[in-house]
What we know:
This protein is of the alpha+beta class. The chain has a domain at 2-103. Helix content is 43%, strand content 18%. The chain is built from six helices and four strands. The chain has helices at residues 17-27, 33-49, 81-86, 107-113, 144-161, 165-186, and strands at residues 2-4, 56-61, 66-77, 90-101. Strands 1-4-3-2 form a four-stranded antiparallel beta sheet. Helix 5 crosses helix 6. The radius of gyration is 20 Å and the shape is elongated.
Amino acid sequence: MVCIGYPAIGSLEGKRKEETRAMYVEAYPDDESAQIRFHLGVINAFVNTIVAERDLILVEDKSDPVTYVGIAGEYEYVGDTESVRLGLTHRRHVDWRAKVPKSDLVPEVQELLRNRPTITQFKYPQSVAMLDWVFDTEAKLDGTADLVHQALEVLKDDMGQTEDPLRRTLAAWQSYANLRRLADRDH
Length: 187
């Protein structure tokens, strides 16, 4: 699951932007207008912009150069004492599908993750991210995705490091076929 703070606001399920703003200002009356705009942007993105079962959630692990990739679930508010104390009241469950080395992500996704302390919408069509394979029902964090990445690493190594021209050609052809399959799925 992924969470944002703002426990004092209460549930935002079904709330319009104007209602959310009023609830925020009531809960955090000392915030300046710039702070209010920033926080409302984060809240609105988390509650209203993310579409469950269609949008991807990417979370970068700062201690390890990997990014966790999953499919967004529905928004929910959990107002129990412990959730409020921890600031984990606004939640989205995530079906985590992959643990991807950051270096394996396309430059546009790496840029998205760079210096992003909070929620940011990808400015390109989702197909540019080259992460559509995550929606494959077989791709799960249980190791399938890691196996795919290991196989891709072998293909990369074979294309660039082997002396055998046939092996290089086969690796290049397999990589091309996989990319073509992804591109065809986007159309």
